[in-house]
Design brief:
Helices cover about 50% and strands about 15% of the residues. The strands form 3 sheets. The chain has a 4-stranded mixed β-sheet with strand order 1-4-5-8, covered by helices on one side.
Length: about 375
């Protein structure tokens, strides 16, 4: 089926993204994978190309266009290029809304120009060693000391943790308040007591720096409170639908790309004197994956259109959860089946299917695990 989601403007933007990937990302990607981190120059190049802050107002250096379809194009092309290390989606789609929707005028003037130029790389620090999806388990605290907060605690699995110049930290500001006693505090590079731990050694997405963060008596100015005091829970819930949709977009794009690569491979690879594509089992595998991808694509595209509709209320959180768990679980299944169809070559690191197998495995975990997504859906239906 022909996709009806994008206009000529979106496809023109797609061409810009592909050119950027070819010139600024892919020639350096293997080195970034070895280094365990992308270069700062890549972020600056993305800023120069206008790929950062798509939804940020033009007065602050952004694109001034909140149409989520442009973000979707970015996610699709970075996924197809197998280049998740440069976490533009995290920067734009997950952290961006906190700054554009919650920041004061003064904060916007202070942070958004660098956000859009690539001079300020961002991260959000929610997960702790003893608290993943459970916000009530957060132990990081911020004590009120008049004109500043004193922040203490630690976070882990923080994407962009090494490179980040600005970190939105979820901390307890009302100890007895549980999940509803949390606030968002912005910690900036160079603040005394803010330290980074290891650049964590992951099984995939090697070039995407993921770190432990430590806060010991960090003095955070009161003007670095983002949003309402004790309002973090509501702020976090408000932005989760877009975060989960962005992950779903990458999930179906990844599955489709693997299917395309594998379809080509089985046509060329011979076994027992004929192409693998001539074997009924292989044809059935390809047929099943193609059907699953087509059905999933239809639903995800509908979610994108709903979220991008300026006249609507945005994507329903339940549908976002459905899209996230289904598309990412499909990506995981397709990666496994495509690797199997590649045989021994699929296990070789230089083959795209091998990297996709490890890079994509995190998709069913971050942004809320598959199990959490099902719980959200189940509660909406059963109470």
């Amino acid at each position: 089926m022909k996709r009806q989601l994008y206009t000529e403007d979106h496809e023109a933007f797609r061409a810009v993204v592909r050119t950027f990937l070819e010139k600024e990302v892919l020639p350096h990607y293997e080195q970034w994978e070895k280094d365990g981190i992308v270069s700062r120059e890549a972020w600056l190049a993305a800023g120069r190309q206008g790929l950062l802050g798509l939804a940020v107002e033009e007065e602050h250096g952004g694109g001034g266009n909140p149409d989520f379809r442009y973000a979707s194009v970015l996610a699709e092309e970075f996924t197809k290029a197998a280049a998740p290390g440069l976490a533009i989606g995290l920067h734009n789609d997950i952290i961006g809304p906190y700054l554009t929707k919650l920041a004061t005028d003064e904060q916007r003037r202070r942070w958004l120009p660098g956000f859009c130029s690539g001079e300020i790389v961002t991260a959000i620090a929610m997960t702790e060693p003893g608290a993943g999806s459970d916000l009530q388990g957060i132990r990081t605290t911020a004590e009120d000391h008049g004109d500043h907060w004193i922040l203490n605690g630690s976070k882990t699995f923080i994407s962009n943790g090494i490179l980040a110049d600005l970190v939105i930290v979820v901390a307890k500001t009302t100890p007895e308040g549980g999940a509803h006693g949390l606030s968002l505090l912005v910690v900036e590079r160079g603040m005394e007591g803010f330290e980074r731990g290891r650049n964590l050694d992951k099984i995939g997405q090697k070039s995407q720096d993921t770190a432990e963060l430590f806060f010991k008596d960090v003095r955070v100015p009161k003007e670095n409170l983002l949003g309402e005091l004790d309002g973090a829970f509501v702020h976090l819930m408000t932005n989760l639908a877009q975060e989960r949709l962005a992950i779903a977009v990458a999930g179906i794009a990844g599955a489709e790309h693997l299917l395309e690569l594998t379809t080509r491979y089985v046509k060329e690879r011979e076994a027992f004197g004929r192409p693998l594509a001539k074997l009924q089992h292989v044809r059935f595998e390809i047929a099943e994956m193609a059907t699953e991808c087509a059905v999933t694509r239809t639903f995800v595209d509908r979610c994108i259109a709903e979220h991008a509709d300026p006249t609507g209320l945005g994507l329903d959180p339940v549908n976002a959860s459905m899209a996230k768990w289904w598309a990412t679980e499909l990506q995981k299944r397709v990666a496994d089946r495509c690797l199997q169809l590649h045989g021994g070559y699929g296990y070789m690191s230089e083959f795209p299917v091998a990297r996709a197998f490890t890079d994509g495995r995190i998709q069913t975990i971050y942004g809320g695990t598959t199990e959490i997504m099902k719980e959200i859906i189940g509660r909406s239906l059963l109470g």
